[in-house]
Amino acid sequence: MRNLITILMCVLFWSCSQKTEDPEIIVNPKEPETQNDVFLFDLGLFCCKCSDSTTIERSWDYPVKPGTEEWKNFHDNDGIVNALQIPEDILVSLSTEELTEICLGYPFLHYALYFDRYNDGLDKLFNDFNGVRELFKREDVSKELIGWYDCQIKNLTIWNREGFDTQKGMVSIKTPTLEALLSRVSSDYKDVLRSLVNGYEEKLMYSDSTSYKSYLNFSARAHIIQKMCGQCLDEIPENERIYLLDAYRRALNDNTLTIINRLSYQLIK
Questions:
Q1: Distance separating alpha carbons of residues 248 and 250, to the nearest angstrom
Q2: Residue pLDDT, tens place only, 165-196
Q3: Comparing C-alpha atoms, which of 216, 217, 188 is closest to residue 201?
Q4: Can you give the pTM of this predicted structure?
């Protein structure tokens, strides 16, 4: 599973080392050449909170979408990024529920997952897209993101199916993407941490939980723990703490993971 997801990532994106050296490099805007490209770029990755729920009726949608003729006509990243901005008069009128769903359909949302340091990817997302910047100004953004995350965790049962399919791949991308976003919230810390702990416990039930992206759950929890208790992470060695908070693409020390788990359970009591 892990190898297949990695292959799909490489189809769409240049090497992670390129992105780390030059954060302005982003996805090649040409038309997706394979079905896998369309899969990873599909605006339907976050089609609804749960499989048994329905989407809300949107008052705005992206005027340009991957795979269309309009998308092919763009020859640089700036052109696409500008075309995907939400008009300001519409932006401020959107409910948080609708804005969240729109943001989760942003074509470059998952770009953070392909940086060596996920925080670099998140910083670029916030810099490039006015929808995400507005969303994180909303007081109820935590509630909305928790709702989406909890439903994606319920969908982890799909990992019980044998073999690889697009639905399994979608869940494998949706879950860490939401964990990365939850690391940036500025309220409802206990509820966010409780949701992330639940996600961690559910992942333990599946072999796919060993995926390299799973430690985004630990990184997200570390950010929330730091916001709840500024000194709590001091027992983690400084170098390891930097890697943890920077969401660097590397394995974490087992002792660090144990500390994060212990602090998480203490803080959600």
A1: 6
A2: 677 777 778 889 999 999 999 999 999 999 99
A3: 217
A4: 0.80
Contacts (Cβ under 8 Å, ≥6 apart) of 211 = 1, 2, 5, 172
- Beta-carbon contacts of residue 70 (< 8 Å; ≥ 6 apart): 63, 64
Which of 101, 66, 71 shows the shortest CA–CA distance to 86?
101
132-154 per-position pLDDT tens digit: 999 999 999 999 999 999 998 98
Contact 173, 110 (CB under 8 A): yes
Q: Whose structure tokens read 């297949």?
A: 4
Residue type, 188: D
Q: Does residue 109 contact residue 64 with C-beta atoms inside 8 Å?
A: no
Helix/strand/coil (H/E/C) assignment for every residue in the chain? CHHHHHHHHHHHCCCHHHHHHCCCCCCCCCCCCCHHHHHHHCHHHHCCCCCCCCCCCCCCCCCCCCCCHHHHCCCCHHHHHHHCCCCHHHHCCCCHHHHHHHHCCCCCHHHHHHCCEHHHHHHHHHHHCHHHHHHCCCCCHHHHHHHHHHHHHHHHHHHHCCCCCHHHHHHHHHHHHHHHHHCCCCCCHHHHHHHHHHHHHHHCCCHHHHCHHHHHHHHHHHHHHHHHCCCHHHHCCHHHHHHHHCCECCCCCHHHHHHHHHHHHHHCC
